[in-house]
Amino acid sequence: MAEPGNLPDKPEEWGHASASATIICSDCPRNGKTLFAKLVADLLTLRLGHPPLIFDTDEPDGSLINHFPEPGQILDLSKTTAQVALFDGMLMQPGSHFLIDLADRHFSRFFKIYRDIDYESGAEEVGLDLTVFFLIDRTEASIEAAAELSASLPKTRFITVRNSAIGDALEQGRSSDIYHQMRIDREVLLPQLSAEALGMLEHPDFHFDLFIAGKYEHFPFELKAELWSFLEGLYEQRDSVETGSTYPV
Amino acid sequence: MKHSMILVGADKGGVGKTTLSRALLDHLERNNVMVRAFDTENPRGTLNRFYPNKATIIDLANVADQMRILDTMETAAEQVTIVDLKAGNLSAALDVFDRIGVLQAAKDGMFDLGLLHVVGPSIASLDEMNEVAKYTNGMDYVVARNFINETNFFEWDEKTYNKYFARLPNAKEIEVPKLNEMAYEQVDLAGATFTDFIANKNAAGEDANFSFVLRGYVRKWLQDIDAEFSQLDMIKAIMAAKRSNASGES
Fold first, then answer.
1. Do A80 and B215 touch (CB under 8 A)?
2. Is residue A5 part of a domain?
3. Which residue of B181, B211, B220 is in closest CB contact with A84?
4. The domain spanning residue A85 has which CATH number?
């Protein structure tokens, strides 16, 4: 089993995560969810040697899919055919890694289906490792939504993401108490980026795996330094990963 | 052990009567209750399509078929008889049962009699409740409000429904929750029981390859409808009799 902070380089050595589904979600819009999904997809690409299979639920035009045109699919989760394509599709492709960018308007629907059909058991049967990244918004209601979701998904790794760019939600009312009482397998603190760096990240052609591989040497020094610092900030948090976690961020 | 007979009917077609019969049959079998069924949708029974070995197609107007249900109750190995009444035939069937003394026999305690009256979204369905009220003395009368194949609304509002329901002092009610349409169609297409479908088995009991999502929808629906059935006095009595019989045997 992989030790925290010392993940093996080859995906096949990640232990139980020979197949995985990563769900990036939030109960609210505009808190950096798609950018974070892009970051996770890039880091998975780095680990796997190819991008994960992406399901983008922001129909009709998609969000994340514009950064990863292949392989990916835009799904309208209000349709049963799309639900079948997504949930059954992940169970029927053993050894594959999936990333779901869940639009906030489908948040409740998606997790209701997930619970109703007992997706955790189905995933367990085929060895599909499930992880939810929940981006906490600014409000107490968002933390309550995270706590409720975490409690309802006992077999899904639950990771909260606090985005410094939108402010600290834990300063509100009972937020801190609720937050510290909920089951969290891990927490990611997303460092704030300058407008210039954010603009770069939003460009469909920019990818972290390419940046790490040295493909953007022509970038201004300060921008490169900021992006390296951002990545290092995330990688340092890897030390706090619980034993056995195989997640690359 | 005292026998129970449960009639499932409606005076209007397409309200989900046979679906409810199937769900009830599944519910009882999952609880290890031995059940037999009669499908009065003669000559081609829908219930029989899903339970070819358990549901016998009969013509309720035929005296010999009436005898097949009634004269065998005491000797049947099964504890429960379900009679799925032909669409639009509820009042007529109750009239037949009244004339041949079935309703009186139930009143006299020879067996337990229940009626699951499936009502759809129309006002006509509410009027049916008044029509059958005269037969329901001495039986467990249950109004099943069916949402299974309705996507959005009932023609009648809660106030109207409550007004009708209040006229039936001994009636109980259950709600048949909505089942995802594609899931419903898949079960129908497979010709399998709900229980087999969620276990990923086809009509022949062989391993199948049904969608996990659709099986999940059906599983959740069955859980919800099981909860509705479990609160009914007639079902409680059947379960209690089964437990009592089992402890007597051991």
1. no
2. no
3. B211
4. 3.40.50.300
Q: What is the DSSP string of A90-123?
A: HHTSTT-EEEEE--GGGHHHHHHHHHHTTHHHHH
A157 located within any domain? yes
Q: What are the chain B neighbours of A109 within 8 Å (beta carbons)?
A: none
In a domain, A162, yes or no: yes
Which domains, and CATH codes, for chain B? 4-179+233-249 (3.40.50.300)
Q: What is the pTM of this model?
A: 0.89
Cβ–Cβ gap B216/A80 under 8 Å = no
Q: Got the DSSP string for B45-105? A: -HHHHH-TTTEEE--TTSHHHHHHHHTTTTT-S-SEEEEEPPTT-HHHHHHHHHHTTHHHH
Domain range for residue A205?
17-240
pLDDT digits (tens, 9 = 90+) for A182-213: 999 999 999 999 999 999 999 999 999 999 99
Contacts of A118 in chain B (CB under 8 A): 216, 219
| pLDDT tens-digit readout, A13-38 | 333 468 999 999 999 999 999 999 99
Task: Look at A118 and B219 and tell me if their CB atoms are within 8 Å.
Answer: yes
Q: Chain A residue with minimal CA distance to B216?
A: A117
